[in-house]
Amino acid sequence: MLVLSRKLGERIFISDNVCITVVEINRGKVRLGIEAPRSVAVMRSELLVRDDSRAAPRPDRYTS
Fold it and tell me: What sign does the CA torsion over 25, 11, 35, 56 have?
């Protein structure tokens, strides 16, 4: 796992087509803006549901 520190307004780029921006820091919460093509799945880990009929991504692959 790569751990990075960012300040308000700073960005992280993943590959050529995904950009994550720190848009707000308030009372211990960080809001992130994610720019990605529609073909890239972006999901919060708590919304991932394990379904035996199809292979679901592992929650630890998605970090907050």
Answer: negative
> Among residues 21, 28, 27, which one has the least CA distance to residue 7?
21
Mean pLDDT per 10-residue segment, the chain (64 residues): 95 96 95 96 84 54 51
Q: Which residues of 14-29 are buried (b: 16+ CB within 10 A; e: fewer)?
A: eeeeeebbbeeeeeee
- pTM for the predicted model, two decimal places: 0.69
* Integer Cα distance of 4 and 2 in angstroms: 7
Q: What SS3 class is residue 46? A: helix
